[in-house]
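Q: My labmate handed me this sequence with no annotations at all. I'd like to see what the chain might look like in three dimensions before we decide whether it's worth expressing. Could you predict it?
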Amino acid sequence: MKSPFVLVNNPFFKLIISELGVGETAMSDTTLTTVLLPKTNKKVMDFVKSQLKDREVCMIVDAMTRYDNSYSNFLVSCPSDKLVRGIEHHPTPVFFSTTKVMDEGTSQHIGFTIGSVINELRENDIHVVSYPTHNSTVIRNTQSFLQNTLLHPVQCVSCAFHVLNRILNDLLKLEPFHSV
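A: Here is what I predict for the chain of 180 residues:
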């Protein structure tokens, strides 16, 4: 997985870095992937946790399949500070939480995975109260498996994007759009 980082071992890349004055010696791909990236990731995740600590959040689950691997990205969003604390000019924050590789796309597996991520967030005093989803049978059925892994209920809400997409698809089937 570190193949893009082998670039830092290339002598021409090292020369560019040196010429730019970034450093006398460019780091190796091993240093980049085993030291700097994990250190940076920890800093970012500590910041995210500090921003969301003791807040109620909505967890957004975005799934994708690429090269026969299924992934679920988990993002968290919370109401703006203006709504919660009365502070002006603070937008609604959305933060990346984690990515999980999904071995199978069953309702049970997806539900347990969502539940495990919610429990991880809870351990950091981040309280997931809802998660939006599209209306497929597989996702609708995750709710029962999800609730079995949680200590408190989490509300499943409709995803506005998916709702609008379905409405537009239905409208496009009607005349005069259908014949265009």
